[in-house]
Specification:
The complex is a heterodimer of chains A (291) and B (230).
Chain A: E1 2-10, E2 16-25, E3 30-35, H1 41-46, E4 56-61, E5 64-65, H2 71-76, E6 78-82, H3 93-97, H4 99-103, H5 108-121, H6 138-150, E7 156-160, H7 168-185, E8 188-193, H8 196-202, E9 205-210, E10 214-219, H9 221-226, H10 231-237, E11 247-251, E12 254-258, E13 264-267, H11 286-289
Parallel strand pairs in A: 3-8, 3-9, 6-7, 7-8
Antiparallel strand pairs in A: 1-2, 1-4, 4-5, 9-10, 11-12, 12-13
Helix pairs in contact in A: 5-6
Chain B: H1 3-12, H2 23-55, H3 59-71, H4 74-85, H5 90-113, H6 117-125, H7 130-163, H8 173-179, H9 185-213, H10 216-229
Helix pairs in contact in B: 1-9, 2-5, 2-7, 3-5, 4-5, 5-7, 6-7, 7-9, 8-9
Classes of the chains: A alpha/beta (291), B mainly alpha (230).
The complex binds adenosine-5'-triphosphate and magnesium ion.
């Protein structure tokens, strides 16, 4: 469990990126921080691995104040995945994945073996092992980034808009892959995005942020959609524009669910989905499970 | 009278190819001075340059100081230092070290400056120490530009050591300085040719090194972006 207790971050230039934030991030769940640009998402995320230190307040991991931990050691135990992968351009894919293993003194052979396994885990062909990052597509680079983040089998995985720079089709592939990984691995994932749809898809818990790292609403997707806390939230999730309004239309196999733009989102069946959270906006449909 | 033919004749004259005043000995001497100058200048400039590149601090100061150094007329500096320090190698050595510092310094901090901030940031975020960030990320990725700096420093130092022969020091400048008063133009030109050849050869060696040290993935990156722009 990660806990923020009235955490404030003021940068030297006077910007208050986060103002007395209190937030509990439960273990083994995905918490999504969503908000518009400049709302302090990255700053909050980076206070978890001490890339940024709070001006005041306490950040705890499993009850321990991280201010007392050595930053380098702390970071090696936490996976970090960022937009544009942040891979080392002069190292091969396999060595990029093994970066943290090398740092912690794992023997080269073992580290590389583990890196190859991780390539399988994130769905990357092992044939890419000897390529350089620049020889991969953006989506493949992100997979390498995720594999690197998982290398030391950390409990916590921080992801800062990891799929922000890839095209929509690849993004949706990567999102599905992350859902699968999360089902298998059950990490404490903190995921930053400004895409509310991504947040609804991936998050067990969602924090919608206003400027200054202020939490406009914290809850499950169902809670947020069914009961937006204020106008800011409803405008952010689009309920005010009717963007999430669904209606039914008769079809041969049951009622079709039509979304706000008039497109069929799926077919309404009576039993609820067998796994995963359910919420009003979710239907079984071509865009989410590929059938 | 053909100066070029005379110079060539001078160059192949066995008398000029042997002994402590011969071309090979002077060349070795010249290279020795050059190497000594570069080692001292690098020992000063590289740590400072990389510190500036790594911390991102002091860049303005470094640019100003380098600019000032560059503006110094080298011959004037050599002369002033010789007046202060007396004849011998110390004065020109000091002057040339000062001359060599700016390009080395600039190569180092510009080399680090050219590395993507997000690359460095993520190296730190996955748990590299500051030293590891420097040694495993900034240093290898800065090499292409750092070696550019070394190349221009080397060329200047090789060229300027010839001028330093006005103080009685050795090196290839001796031929030019000694030939001139006795109107031995074959010797002057022959000496000049050797200096030029030396500079070209050393530069070619460094250019080769520069190609080799460009990290493989970075080369691939350049190819990829070239293909994209083609
Ligand atoms: N190092 C810094 N120095 C000064 N101000 C900063 C610094 N880093 C961030 N800020 C400011 O803090 C605020 C929050 O920034 P942050 O990067 O956390 O936002 P974000 O929600 O991640 O935005 P984005 O979606 O654009 O990534 C912004 O106003 C930003 O300009
Ligand atoms: Mg951000």
């Amino acid at each position: 469990m990660i806990e923020f207790r009235s955490v404030t971050k003021q940068f030297p230039d006077g910007t208050r990126a986060v103002d007395s934030l209190s937030l509990v991030i439960p273990s083994r769940k995905t918490t999504v921080l969503v908000g518009s640009s400049g709302s302090g998402k990255t700053t909050i995320l980076r206070m978890i691995n001490r890339m940024v230190d709070p001006t005041s307040g306490v950040v705890e991991i499993d009850g321990d104040d991280i201010a007392g931990k050595e930053p380098v050691k702390l970071r090696r135990g936490i996976g970090y995945v960022m937009q544009n992968s942040g891979l080392l351009p002069h190292r091969k894919v396999i060595d990029n994945i093994a970066t943290v293993l090398y740092l912690t003194g794992v023997a080269r052979g073992r580290a590389r073996g583990r890196a190859l396994e991780l390539m399988d885990t994130v769905g990357l062909d092992r044939a890419f092992a000897d390529r350089y990052p620049s020889q991969l597509s953006g989506g493949q680079q992100q997979r390498v980034g995720v594999a690197r983040g998982l290398a030391v089998d950390p409990n916590i995985l921080l992801m800062d808009e990891p799929f922000g720079a890839v095209d929509p089709i690849v993004r949706s592939e990567l999102q599905q892959e992350l859902l699968r990984l999360q089902r298998e691995l059950g990490k404490t994932v903190v995921f930053v995005t400004h895409d509310i749809d991504e947040a609804f898809l991936l998050g067990d818990q969602i924090a919608i942020l206003k400027t200054g790292g202020e939490i406009a609403q914290l809850g499950t997707p169902t809670e947020i959609l069914s009961n937006p806390a204020d106008d800011f939230v409803s405008s952010f999730v689009g309920t005010d524009r009717g963007a999430r309004a669904l209606h039914l239309a008769p079809g041969r196999f049951g009622n079709l669910v039509i979304d706000g733009t008039g497109r069929p989102a799926g077919i309404l069946v009576n039993e609820s989905p067998t796994e995963g959270p359910s919420w009003p906006g979710q239907t079984r449909g071509p865009s989410t499970d590929g059938r | 009278m053909n100066n070029w033919l005379d110079a060539l004749a001078w160059l192949v004259d066995p008398e000029n190819l042997t002994g402590p005043g011969g071309v090979p000995a002077r060349t070795v001497e010249h290279l020795g001075y050059t190497l000594l100058t570069l080692v001292i200048a690098a020992a000063i400039a590289l740590p400072i340059g990389y510190l500036i590149g790594h911390t991102g601090r002091g860049r303005g100061l470094a640019v100003a100081v380098s600019g000032g150094f560059r503006a110094l007329p080298t011959l004037g500096l050599v002369t002033v230092l010789a007046l202060l320090m007396g004849l011998g190698i110390l004065a020109p050595l000091t002057a040339l070290v000062i001359l060599a510092i700016p390009p080395l310094l600039a190569g180092a901090y510009a080399g680090v400056g050219a590395v993507e901030r997000s690359t460095i940031d993520s190296a730190r975020a996955v748990g590299m120490t500051e030293w590891q960030v420097f040694a495993q990320v900034e240093l290898p990725l800065s090499l292409p530009l750092a070696i550019s700096g070394l190349r221009s420093a080397t060329l200047q130092v090789i060229a300027t050591w010839t001028v330093a022969a006005i103080l009685p020091v050795g090196g290839l400048g001796r031929f030019m300085l000694d030939g001139l008063p006795v109107r031995n133009y074959a010797e002057v030109l022959g000496g000049a040719i050797v200096v030029i050849l030396l500079a070209l050869v050393i530069d070619a060696v460094l250019a080769g090194t520069q190609r080799i040290v460009i990290p493989r993935g970075v080369k691939a990156l350049r190819l990829a972006s070239k293909r994209m722009h083609a």
